[in-house]
Amino acid sequence: MANKDKKGFNTGVYAVLTSIILAVVLVVMTIFSVVTKYTAFSPEKIAQSYVDGIIQTGDGYNAYKTTLVSKNQKYGDFIINAYMRPYVNDGDDVKQADFVGTGSEEEQKAIDEVYNTMYAYYCELIKTEGWDKYDAVFDKYFSRLTEVRKAVYGDEFMNTEFMFGALEANVQTYADSLTGTKRTFTPDNKKVLREETIGAYQVMFGNIEKVETENIVDGKKQTVTEEQPVYKLTTEVKSCEELSKADAKAYAEEFSKRIKPVAKSGEAKADKFGLTDVDKKHAFKTNMVNAFEKLDCSADIEGAAKVSLEVKDQNGNTVATQELFVVKIGSSWYVDNTNINTSALYISQGE
Question: Using CA atoms, how far apart are residues 286 and 47, in angstroms rounded to an integer?
Fold first, then answer.
């Protein structure tokens, strides 16, 4: 049986796993982009994509790519301009720790310590705030990351690449803790680099079955049959009710009331952090103000729909239900993230 412990990144395998993870991320991003392009034309499919994205791996972070947050701006740019910029300090006059960029064991240990320390904090934020409160999650996460970086590296340096690296590694580790992971092997396929792990979903829902997997037998990687807990979660749309024109207009007005205070909060946030516009290329305050202002899509909403969804395991048991509203702008539908509670989808936390 696989090892049930999930400890995060291991220093001995970090270099090899990094290239693998980057390749997987690029493939996933491409698939996500294509899938989102076509699901956006259907209120049922965009709702299903949103819920399924969270339920499968607990990934409330990437779920925002299907919401109104990403309607008027790229999601990554929004995160940079609205949340990362106050902490970025990557000028030529800011010295990094001597081991940065060396690929040494010291650097690997520092990366591991930052990622693992932040992972514990990430899990705490998911439990206490939840991704429905993304503003609080981003604010608190990057503030803490800055402190942890300084404590571990002993420098003042911070850039967006490092910040995305830590956050997205934590998101992936959280997903692994739910789904479990497969064995990975050395490049010559003669040794196990990392043993597989059993995830929370396998424990909660898994049926013990014989499955074909890869392992090392007599010094060679071979396909073997092992008993493992197997599960499957399926998201189904139970109903989709498009609102009348009058009701959709009323819904847009209610959305406007919810979003306008958020959209107007950028200037106060920028002033709190002391952000200013240095020049056109470094318009830090303006970029933060604009990032929040672009969240207001109320004038563009042409339709709305209420969608009810159900999540079932492989035995047909309902493990979660979710109701959400999607809105139509042009020919595309978006999830209204201002009017939703996804806590039921984080089933591993017993919510």
Answer: 33
Class of residue 166 by CB neighbours under 10 A (exposed 0-12, middle 13-18, buried 19+): buried
pLDDT exceeds 60 at position 101: yes
Q: Tens digit of pLDDT for each residue in 158-209?
A: 999 999 999 999 999 999 999 999 999 999 999 999 999 999 999 999 999 9
**Collapsed DSSP state (helix, strand, coil) of residue 230:** strand
Could you tell me if 69 and 134 are in contact, meaning their C-beta atoms sit under 8 angstroms apart?
A: yes
- Ordered alpha helix ranges (H), 40-80: 43-57, 75-79
The arithmetic mean of pLDDT across residues 286-312, rounded, is: 98
In Å, how far from its chain's centre is CA 119? 13
| Torsion 272-273-278-280 (CA) sign | negative
Alpha carbon dihedral 296, 302, 308, 311, in 10-degree steps, equals: -60
Tell me the residue ranges of DSSP E strands in 218-266.
Answer: 220-230, 234-242
**Whether residue 77 has pLDDT greater than 50:** yes
The rounded distance, in Å, linking the Cα atoms of 303 and 335 is 12
User: If 0-12 CB within 10 Å is exposed, 13-18 middle and 19+ buried, where does residue 235 land?
Assistant: buried
Q: C-alpha 126: how far from its chain's center? A: 11
Question: Three-state DSSP class for 1?
Answer: coil
Total number of residues shown for the chain: 351
Q: How many Cβ atoms are within 10 Å of 279's Cβ, its own excluded?
A: 6
Nearest Cα to 16, choosing from 176, 197, 185, 164?
185
Which of 316, 318, 308 is closest to 347 using CA atoms? Answer: 318
Q: Whole-prediction pTM value?
A: 0.86
Residue pair 279/304 in contact by the 8 Å Cβ criterion: no
- pLDDT score, position 92: 72
312 CA to centre of own chain: 22
Q: What is the mean pLDDT of residues 245-259?
A: 98
